[in-house]
Amino acid sequence: MPESTLSSSSPDMNCSSLRYVHSINEAGRLLPSASRWNSIEIDYNVLPKSSIEYDSLPSPYSKSIEFNLVITDKTRLKRFVYISIFLVLAILALVLLLHFLPPKHGHHGSSKNLTLAINQALTFFEAQKSGHFPKNSSVSFRGNSGLQDGNSSSHDLVGGFYDSGNNIKFSFPTAYTITLLSWTVIEYHQKYADIGELEHVKDIIKWGSDYLLKLFVPPINATSGSTNTTLYSQVGSTTNDRFNDVDCWQRPEDMSYWRQVSICNSTASDLAGEIVAALSAASLVFGEDKAYSGELIKGAEKLFELATAVDPSAQGTYTMSDACGGQARQFYNSSGFEDELVWAGTWLFFATGNPTYLGTVTQKWTSAQTEEIPSEKWIFDWNNKITANAVLLTRLRFFLDMGYPYAAALQPSTTRTDLLMCSYLSEHIFNKTPGGLILLRPDDGKPLQFAATASFLSKLYRDYLDLLQRPGGSCGSHNYTLEMLRHFSMSQVDYILGDNPMKMSYVVGFGETYPVHVHHRSSSIPWDGHQYSCEDGDKWLYSEQPNPNTLLGAMVGGPDQHDKFLDDRKKPWFTEPSISSNAGLVAALIALHNPPCESSNFNCVGSGIDKMGIFTNIR
Fold this sequence. Notes:
The chain is globular, with a radius of gyration of 34 Å. Helices cover 41% and strands 6% of the residues. The protein contains 18 helices and 9 strands. α3 (171-194) runs antiparallel to α4. β8 (472-475) and β9 (478-481) form a beta hairpin. Strands 4, 5, 6 and 7 form a 4-stranded antiparallel beta sheet that branches. It has a 3-stranded antiparallel beta sheet with strand order 2-1-3, with no helix packed on it. Strands 8-9 form a two-stranded antiparallel sheet. The longest helix is centred in the N-terminal third of the chain and has 27 residues, at 74-100. The N and C termini lie far apart (70 Å). By secondary structure, the protein is mainly alpha-helical.
């Protein structure tokens, strides 16, 4: 850059040169100037000139050796110094702010295609539908089935879902499934919409909620404490008769045997509570359809009223009664009922905004925790709702000020939720397989169902903290970060989708290697226009050939404690899927799916969650 200097022969100069420089430009640099009036005047003396013409040498080094600076305009210099200091401090503050704030839009997503996995996991529910099968279904190996269900009790029980690889319809896990799927839509509906799955999941929920509305018949002119309510807990039998839904290996479309119905009353508090929770949660999903949402709420409130009006000494679980749940014990034996009543009250509060329900929840919270058996601690599944309920109540405490007396009553739920997160992350509470799968119930087999819901809750709670702009949480002296929660959640889903020692995806149809001998009647019997009897079905049960029909999206039971898995149709503890397990998988997948933060009309802070939608009906 050419220098702007006066000639050395100028009469105004002694043996030194005078240069004019601007005090500062927009970038904070000193610049040469030809104007005396727009500059600071700096007078400097250089050592005696050498006889060598330095200008002729291409040297990169400064020609000046020593400066004697004389400040002629101190006001401008001070201004320059102050501005420079301010800029340095501002830049430093910005760097520190960016460093300590929790990341908002940085997503370390799975290498797996979660959009595809969600679509497939939802498709599994299509294959489980009972009743008049939709003509537009993407599942090609299913048709109408169970059209006589309920005839033995003179009540229409057509519809719903077959539970797993058998042809039984269990009401308890069906209600849990609808509650959980509804919860995911309430929290992450925009994610579903942006990947084109919102109507798909809502159709599945409605298929289930329509069926649940059929499962109870209130008494006429019921009096307080009446137990005359009729609840239907099961369609299909497990009796010793050869022609039943366990011993007969037959497609549901070919069933011609008599299907037994199990009947309960309102003393089946756990079953009633879970149905109430499902109807209430579904009412929020279909809030724009006032008529249908109102029907769901009306049914939920009526059933809750009847269930809670029962004398406490008469309340119990549905599997306590042989007529009600005797045949379900070997599949879905309930260990308590207080958690379902609290779960029901929580969802009814969200659905209606009636604080009476919240009061019931806070009053029963301690007794519900006391009822929890040690083997169920920290687990969220069809049997235990306390773990998830704590997360829900913490959500309420975080984002909606309920005031006295609820604020103090909700504090224990937050403490429990923090302990839950620490239990997932701790190396001393739960063991993991060598491949990294958490073993929440190591002695019971089918570990993936528990890992999936743990993945969901940890990511969901991480998103709550993210909305609060908190870097993490703590339990006692142990701290955890948002990244730790996200990493744990993702590690479990990645394991399920193929990052495991077997190098196998445990979701049918996902990835290159997955189970092909799934314990599932419809999937294992050819869809070839022939009707197969129970005896014919044995051929397919014991066949060594892969299933002729791909049960897309079905999450099987999973490996053992040592990551070993046997793809054997005759070993259901490895290869059988269920609707309740797949609901947990869908929940984990949608929670981990990267959020579409550019979407309009959506409260997105890097988590993809609808912050206030769940509180729509609370005034």
